[in-house]
UniProtKB/TrEMBL annotation:
Chain ranges of the D-isomer specific 2-hydroxyacid dehydrogenase NAD-binding domain: 113-290
Molecular function GO terms recorded: glyoxylate reductase (NADPH) activity; hydroxypyruvate reductase (NADH) activity; NAD binding
Organism this protein belongs to: Manduca sexta (Tobacco hawkmoth)
Stretches that traverse the bilayer: none
Domain of life: Eukaryota
Name recorded for this polypeptide: Glyoxylate reductase/hydroxypyruvate reductase
Length: 322
């Protein structure tokens, strides 16, 4: 039996497409990833699919599921997160949903360390001064913060948080802290102490956000929690932009109430070039590129294809969310 599989965005690697095309008819819905035009194209063409690969930042809503039709048998995201998918609606319809679990751990952890160094050592200011011809001799103007001997607090000691700790072991960090909903058995082996969020913020020289975005964690970093942090602290966000009240962070950085921030995720994405957070010399922002390696892209495509093929056969998905 032939199945119709729709892929929301044409930026989908050939290795995954080759797997799908062996047994299914496969159609791309759009070249575009952002904007109303791309969403309109998806809505106009999604009807009748048996499998859906949702490789776009557009929210997967009840409306889109209704437009797809009741024959939809399986969905797979190519991302490791699924906060852009209405899980309640998918579950209500009894549709298996898969995702690309564990793929990005190492590459995102690498970027976390990079952001720590870039923000703490004032790379943005250094590049601006170098490229503008204002390179000043001496070091007093560009003194940064050390990682050696510091306390690093990780909000969310999941697989990515653990990968960050393993990398930082070589930096001679004095103490690792974490907070989360439950005790992590790996923490003892890694030498990470569980504390409350309040204690973590108060004691940490580096605060790394590596937790999922949920109703509970939305704007976890806000005007109140920023006040708990050290004036010399560096905030690093490698998870989701919605974890941070960006207006509150802007004010804290502008007034030097914390030392710096390194952000791979922001709100909105893509962020406008004239957004005020980008004007700050002590805020280093990268365009959500934590998982952006060729290896990761291909691996996510293969996992999504396998999830779809398994779902179409009525078998358990490789990495199920639902």
């Amino acid at each position: 039996m032939s199945f119709q599989v729709y892929i929301a965005n044409k930026r989908y690697p050939a290795v995954g497409l080759d797997l799908l095309r062996k047994t299914t008819q496969t159609t791309f819905l759009t070249y575009l990833e952002y904007g109303e035009d791309s969403l309109k194209e998806i809505k106009n063409n999604i009807k009748g699919c048996d499998g859906l690969i949702w490789n776009t930042h557009h929210p997967l809503t009840a409306e889109i599921l209704d437009l797809a039709g009741p024959q939809l048998k399986v969905i797979s995201s190519t991302s490791t997160g699924f906060d852009h998918i209405d899980l309640g609606e998918v579950k209500k319809r009894g549709i298996p949903l898969g995702y690309a679990r564990l793929v990005l751990n190492n590459s995102v952890a690498d970027v976390a360390v990079g952001l720590m160094i870039a923000a703490a050592r004032r790379f943005k200011e250094g590049v601006i001064n170098t490229e503008s011809g204002n390179w000043e001799l001496g070091t007093q103007w560009r003194l940064g913060q050390d990682i050696t001997g510091s306390t690093v607090g990780i909000v969310g000691l999941g697989s990515i948080g653990q990968a960050v700790v393993r990398r930082l072991k070589g930096f001679d960090v004095a103490k690792f802290l974490y907070c989360g909903r439950r005790e992590k058995p790996e923490a003892k082996t890694l030498g990470v102490q569980r504390v409350s969020l309040e204690q973590l913020l108060a004691e940490s020289d580096y605060v790394i956000l590596a937790c999922p975005l949920t109703d509970e964690t939305k704007e976890l970093i806000n005007a109140n929690t920023l006040k708990m942090m050290k004036k010399t602290a560096v905030l690093v966000n490698i998870a989701r932009g919605g974890l941070v009240d960006q207006d509150a962070l802007y004010e804290a950085l502008k007034e030097n109430r914390i030392f710096a921030a390194g952000l791979d995720v922001v709100t909105p994405e893509p962020i406008p070039k004239d957004h005020k957070i980008l004007s700050l010399p002590n805020c280093f922002v990268t365009p959500h590129m934590g998982g952006a390696t060729m290896s990761n892209l291909n691996t996510k495509a293969i996992i999504a294809a396998k999830n779809i093929l398994l779902g179409l056969e009525g078998k358990p998905l490789l990495y199920p969310v639902i």
